[in-house]
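During the reporting period, our protein records have gained a structure token line. One record among many is quoted in full directly below:
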Amino acid sequence: MSRTTLADAPDPVTATAPARPRRPARPARRWRRLASPVLLVLCWELAARTGLLAPEKLPAPSDVLATGWRLARDGTLAVHLVDSLTRAGVGLLVGGGLALFLGTVAGLLRLGDDLVDPPVQMARMLPHLGLVPLLIIWVGIGESLKISLVALGAFFPIYFNTYAGIRDIDERLVEAARTCGLGQAARLRHVVLPGALPALFLGLRLAIGAAWLSLVVGEQVNAQTGIGFLMMEAREFSQTDVVVLGLLIYALLGLASDLALRVVERRTLTWRRGLRAT
């Protein structure tokens, strides 16, 4: 019968765990994510230059960029862009702030849940873009209409994710915090807020997308400035390149805001370790 000696035993210091598969370097992953959009734009340019796409239907990307540079150089694009960003920011602030408050009240208080959640659940079944005729009667066709549409678009994603984020917190964590002597304010800060933040960030990302969609519609109703107005004016003169430019700007604004929110989320939720794609 053989015995295991100290010399035969594996050294706990030198023994190594199985090597993990190495992830691709982050710069390489970023270039890989750009491959499909760049390929799509190149195919679009090629199809437009070879005549597969009629220029009056869909101009080449280079023509769209040239139009954008011309409008940026004479200052026209900056005026419309600033007005669109202002409407989106004010609408997000109004709708998101109200949604955050009501979602917190409904999630934390039983009375708030009974009074707030039923009418919100009923209202969410209504397409907010279908409320444009009613909003015109209520607030007119000025700036209030655009901001109201953005606020409505941002309200529901933030409300429901705030509500769900609070309600999905494990009650045993709250009880453990109470047992450790934490007061109500400390429990909200150290247990409820960190537990609800992931859902809240998801709601913000959805709200930003809904806000830009609402702004597209709002700026096409009696607007004098804004990217949507620029597109509608271009449609009257069959300027397809300007219309495509407006769509491209909306897409880039939505992408930039989503990327910025992802950066904030990654830095705020440093404690969270979720599943990553391999």
